[in-house]
Specification:
Length: 317
């Protein structure tokens, strides 16, 4: 799909307006209720659906189908990421009334960093078609790793550990011993230091970069259009904060989610390898977007149903 510079600018401007409105509405620190989280989760989903319908109307069924397949995939991967966000919140003992601000800024950092990843991915793909082999192999390996992690107990026994970059930033600037509201920097003993609020925001932003290592190749397995890749990621991420509060208590019930995601990533990995072979002149079948979209939705539906059934049986015991 050919997207003009003006459309790109209008899209980015529209997303910025939505982000600004979201920030303005949630600017006052408070505990997010289930009702508030549910309403805003529905709002973001509706906006994504409207955008996808707009792509179908103005760009055709192909781009629209690619967007919905990419959006659903990115959204499902984001739900798995929420497990780690819970671990980060627990690790830094973030007060409940500040968690929505942490997530808002952390997601914005993640969106900017993902935009860089998407641009880099588009440049690499246009220059080296063989990169699809690497993306496909990486996704298949990631799918196998997800299965192994799920067999070991998944997220239940994990604890968040700060990476070397975050630790070096903490040593360089210093960290206050307590939260100071929503402030990011404070004066302490004559020295300007970071607050734990800034540290946890950076932790969530940096962690999402690691998540992008599998999510960006995954969506490039569904579409090679940078515009669709970017918008699908943007809509999937921008509703993540509200989704965190809405299903936070349900996350532990999704015990089979990792298995479902491994199947999806493995499927997309195979799709990428087949596409790469086709581009190399090998006569192999290619997997179309309608089948991909149906397969992804089916796997997520089955995974959710079996997870709820399994945890229901455990609760009755």
């Amino acid at each position: 799909m050919n997207v003009s510079t003006s459309v790109w600018l209008l899209t980015v401007a529209g997303l910025c307006v939505l982000v600004a409105a979201d920030f303005f509405i949630g600017r006052k620190p408070h505990d997010v209720s289930l009702r508030e989280a549910g309403i805003w989760t529905a709002v973001w989903v509706v906006l994504a659906v409207l955008f996808g319908v707009g792509l179908i109307v103005f760009g055709g069924g192909g781009p629209g189908g690619e967007f919905f397949a990419g959006y659903i995939t990115e959204k499902s991967l984001s739900v798995d990421n929420l497990f780690v966000f819970v671990l980060i919140m627990t690790k830094f003992a973030v007060p409940s009334q500040y968690q929505q601000r942490v997530l808002m800024v952390g997601v914005l950092v993640a969106l900017v960093l993902r935009a860089v990843f998407i641009a880099a991915g588009a440049a690499i793909i246009s220059a080296f078609s063989w990169v699809f082999y690497l993306f496909g192999a990486f996704l298949i390996w990631t799918a196998w790793k997800l299965i192994q992690d799920a067999r070991k107990g998944g997220h239940e026994q994990e604890e968040y550990e700060e990476n070397k970059l975050l630790k070096s930033i903490e040593r360089r600037f210093g960290v206050a011993d307590r939260y100071h509201g929503t402030r990011l920097w404070v004066e302490e003993n004559g020295r300007r230091v970071m607050t734990p609020m800034l540290v946890v925001m950076l932790a969530i932003g940096f962690t999402d970069v690691l998540f992008a290592l599998d999510s960006i190749p995954a969506i490039y397995g569904l579409t090679q259009d940078p515009y669709i890749v970017f918008t699908a990621n943007a809509f999937a991420l921008m509703g993540l904060r509200q989704l965190y509060f809405l299903i936070g208590g349900l996350l532990r019930k999704l015990v089979h989610l990792s298995y479902g995601l491994s199947v999806i990533l493995g499927f997309i990995g195979v799709k990428l390898v087949l596409h790469a072979l086709h581009e190399s002149g090998v006569h192999v079948p290619e997997i179309g977007i309608p089948f991909s979209l149906g397969f992804i939705v089916l796997v997520l539906a089955v995974t959710t149903a079996t997870s709820l059934w399994a945890t229901r049986g455990q609760e009755q015991e």
